[in-house]
Specification:
222 residues; alpha+beta; Cyclic Phosphodiesterase, Chain: A; five-stranded antiparallel sheet; four-stranded antiparallel sheet; globular; RNA 2',3'-cyclic 3'-phosphodiesterase activity; Phosphoesterase_HXTX; 2',3'-cyclic-nucleotide 3'-phosphodiesterase activity
């Protein structure tokens, strides 16, 4: 039986609390709220795997993160999404860091498996040493490269739309909300990313339920 998995950044408890308070404050909105315990930031959207493929993905996870530095995320507003389509989501959106370069170190970082020891930014043709660059887009691109490089993962296609850092907090019937009342959308939610989860999405009548299958922290030691 195939399982629906994805890769996500877990949301810390203090930010879940802030999102939950925002939801309660705007309880009059006719939406289906995402439970705070189910909040996450998707890095790689769902695809289906069998048990052997799941094993390969779980095995790949720590090697892809090896040498990467933790990086900050800031959400500053709540918007209707997705952009350019009929609205059906409420999500928090903020800065999508293109790169985060930590202070120089005398230690040479080990190479990240599956990426030939280099981090590449395709939009500019620039290469960065492995372990020197973090950030949401580099994280996403790194996982895409590593998953595509291993046919045993069952992953076969990158997203065609541009990467956009967002946190979905509610869903609603497409087009039923045209505009958010002001100043509803102003928030200040931030945290530092330090780990990534391999998750399973289980579709239920009341909405998807999520389970963490594997959790890996950033850094050279794991």
């Amino acid at each position: 039986m195939k399982r629906r998995v994805f890769i996500a950044i877990p949301v810390p408890e203090n930010m879940k609390k802030k999102a939950g308070e925002w939801q309660k404050k705007h309880a009059d909105l006719k939406v289906r709220w995402i439970k705070p315990e189910n909040l996450h930031i998707t890095v790689i959207p769902p695809w289906y795997v069998d048990e052997n493929q799941l094993y390969e993905v779980a095995r790949l996870l720590p090697f892809t993160l090896k040498g990467l530095e933790s990086f900050p995320i800031l959400f500053s507003k709540v918007l209707l999404g997705p952009p350019g389509q009929q609205s059906r989501l409420l999500w928090a959106e903020g800065i999508t860091p293109k790169k985060f370069i930590p202070p120089p170190s005398q230690n040479t970082p080990q190479l990240a498996a599956g990426m030939n020891g280099r981090r590449r930014n395709p939009s500019r043709g620039v290469q960065y040493p492995a372990g020197k660059v973090g950030g949401f887009i580099e994280l996403k691109e790194g996982f895409e490269e590593a998953l595509l490089a291993n046919p045993k993962t069952g992953f076969y296609k990158k997203e065609s739309r541009p990467a956009k850092l967002h946190l979905t907090i509610a869903r609603f019937r497409p087009g039923s909300i045209k505009k958010l009342p002001q100043p509803t959308g102003v928030v200040n939610w931030n945290f530092k990313v330090g780990e990534v989860n391999l998750m399973e999405s289980r579709l239920q009548k009341g909405g998807a339920e999520y389970a963490v299958l594997e959790s890996v922290k950033f850094g050279p030691d794991f």
